[in-house]
Amino acid sequence: MSKLIMILLSIFLPPVAVFIKEGVGKHLILNIILCLLFVLPGSVHALWVNMR
């Protein structure tokens, strides 16, 4: 996928972006927990996972 689409997904649907990049695993679980606490940490984590 293009980087622009992944950035937009990371901002608006962080768990989906992490799932596409990493699949089911520790990063997805961590991102879901962060999104449940508050959306901003989940978005930052998704951007970090997708840009590394």
Describe the structure in your own words.
Helix content is 85%, strand content 0%. The protein contains four helices and no strands. The chain has helices at residues 3-12, 14-22, 26-37, 39-51. The protein starts with a helix and ends with a helix.
Short account of what is shown:
The chain is mainly α. Helices cover 85% and strands 0% of the residues.
3D shape: globular
| Gap between N and C termini | 15 Å
- Find the structural class using helix and strand composition: mainly alpha
Contiguous low-pLDDT stretches (5 residues minimum) are none
Q: How would a textbook summarize the main sheet?
A: none
Average pLDDT score: 93
Number of strands: 0
Radius of gyration using CA atoms only: 9 Å
- Along the chain, the helix and strand elements come as HHHH
> What fraction, in percent, of the residue positions are helical?
over 70%
**In percent terms, what proportion of residues is strand?**
under 5%
DSSP helical segment count: 4
Main attributes of the structure:
single chain; mainly alpha; 85% helix
Draw up the topology in text.
Layout: H1 3-12, H2 14-22, H3 26-37, H4 39-51
